[in-house]
Write a structure and sequence with these properties.
This protein is mainly alpha-helical. It has one domain. 74% of the residues lie in helices and 0% in strands. It has 6 helices and no strands.
Length: 133
Amino acid sequence: CLATLIIMLVGDTYTLINYVSFINYLCYGVTILGLIVLRWKKPKIFRPIKVNLLIPITYLAFWAFLLIFSLYSEPIVCGVGLIIILTGVPVFFLGVYWRNKPKCVNRLIESMTCWGQKLCFVVYPQCGSVEEE
C-alpha cells in the first residue's frame, strides 16, 4: 500500500494502471493454476461448482500469452509490479510465518489490525456475541 501511494504521488495514472493490470493478470493466473493443482492433487474434496478442466487450461494459455507479451513490451512496468507484490513477503513473514513473536510485536500487530478495522469499518466475526451470553 505504501509503495502504491508513493508511485501514485510520483508517477502518472497511466503507469499506475499498467502496474495494477500486470499484478491482476499475475494473481488471476496463479489462482487458476492453483485450481488445476487442487483438482489434480485433491480430486475428492467438495466443490460447489465443478467445471471441465479444458476451461481453466485454455484460460491459462491466454494468460501466459498476455503475461509474456506484457513482459516483452513493458519490462520495467512489470518489474515494478513484481516489486510491489514482493513488498508483501516481509509482512507475511512478520505477521504469519513467525510463530514465537515477542509480546511487543504481537501487541503492535494487534493494534495495527484494530486500527485498520476501524479505518475500513471491517470487523472479523466472532464466535459468540454479547447478547447470547
